[in-house]
Amino acid sequence: MLEGRSLIEPLNFSVEEMDGLFVLAERIEEDGTYLRESCRGKLLATLFFEPSTRTRLSFEAAMLRLGGSFLGFADPGSSSAAKGESLADTVRMAASYADAIVMRNPKEGAALLASRYSPVPVINAGDGGHHHPTQTLTDLLTIKRLRGNPGAGLGDSVRGLTVGFCGDLKFGRTVHSLARALARYEKVRLVFVSPPELRVPEYITRLLAKEGIDFLETPSLEGAMPDLDVLYMTRVQRERFFNEEDYIRLKDTYVLNREKMELAKKNLIVLHPLPRVNEIAVEVDEDPRAAYFRQAKYGMYVRMALLSSVLGAA
After folding, report:
1. How many secondary structure helices (H) and strands (E) does the chain include?
2. Cα-based distances in Å from 21 to 55, 118, 201
3. In angstroms, rounded to a whole number, what is the distance separating the alpha carbons of residues 123 and 119?
4. Which of 152, 140, 181 lies closest to 298 in space, CA to CA?
5. Is the pTM of this model over 0.70?
6. Cα angle 233, 237, 240; round to 5
7. Which of 115, 136, 201, 245 has the lowest tally of Cβ within 10 angstroms?
8. CA distance 243 to 223
9. CA dist., res. 189 & res. 227, Å (int)
């Protein structure tokens, strides 16, 4: 049972609990009336201290489709945080009005701190370069739907897959969360493609080594493409850099275009947490292997499953 539970990082839920969420999300996708009105009378607080489009809108759409409502802010300048209010006080205040809180904050560990002060479930919508667990649920559901067998659990769906991550792997919280989640499954191989300055953090590679996960680090996207079953592209995040010159030097290191796609398997799926900047050429959108907009829609379904579960409606 997930009722009353917070989700701060991907490993908060067991493999079995995540499979339950995916089954629920798939049923919601297949039956547009399933769980409609199940959260009638429930209120979600959306506290976004950092810009967001897909995550915030998908949570709000999910709550509305479940029959609930939401309140909150998308700009910390319009909240009392601009007056110096502490995060703990903001969370206590929001919890007095709402049945659950979704929060994005630029500071690592902010979601964990919020959960310690909140009497209602807290869902982490991104804390700095640390975690983004609901994006991970979105990514895993997308892989399951597009590469898995109908009726199979996630473990069977990802078994034997080679998953490549390309771009900003140092600051990319979506990469960190997904790599940690995949480390719980057998016979998954991970390939990390980045310049040396944006390598995946050592704590991730230590975890993979400890779990016996086969992984490779390489600077060559072209060299990795033929082996990949899933390619997870990421943008170089300007907001994470302290030096503008470093950002400008690295931002266009990898651009996925039609020529590179010709090197890939016919059943490759290309994912991206979005927004994209220059790292995927618009021409790739026409390729049937480009799944990032479908991925965004799966995000709404899995967040509907999550909200209905933690609010006790599922």
Report:
1. 12, 9
2. 18, 23, 29
3. 13
4. 140
5. yes
6. 140
7. 245
8. 30
9. 10
Residue type, 292: Y
3-state DSSP helix/strand/coil % of the chain, to nearest 5: 45, 15, 40
Angle formed by the axes of helices 110-117 and 87-97, nearest 10°: 50
Q: What is the pLDDT along the chain (314 residues), one digit of tens a residue?
A: 799 999 999 899 999 999 999 999 999 999 989 999 999 999 999 999 988 888 999 999 999 999 999 999 987 776 666 677 899 999 999 999 999 999 999 999 999 999 999 999 999 999 987 889 999 999 999 999 998 876 778 999 999 999 999 998 988 889 999 999 999 998 999 999 998 888 999 999 999 999 999 999 999 999 999 999 999 999 875 554 455 565 565 556 789 999 999 999 999 999 999 888 889 999 999 999 999 999 999 999 999 999 999 999 97
Q: Which two tokens stand for residue 292?
A: 């990032």
Q: Report cis status (omega within 30 of 0) of the bond before 275.
A: yes
Q: Residue 193 region, left (φ>0) first, then alpha (ψ -120 to 50), else beta? A: beta
Only one residue has tokens 């560990």, namely 109
CB 165 within 8 A of CB 204: no
Looking at the chain, list the stretches that DSSP marks H as alpha helix, in order from N- to C-terminal side: 15-30, 54-65, 87-97, 110-117, 133-147, 154-158, 173-182, 202-210, 221-224, 244-250, 258-261, 292-310
Which tokens go with 287? 């390729």
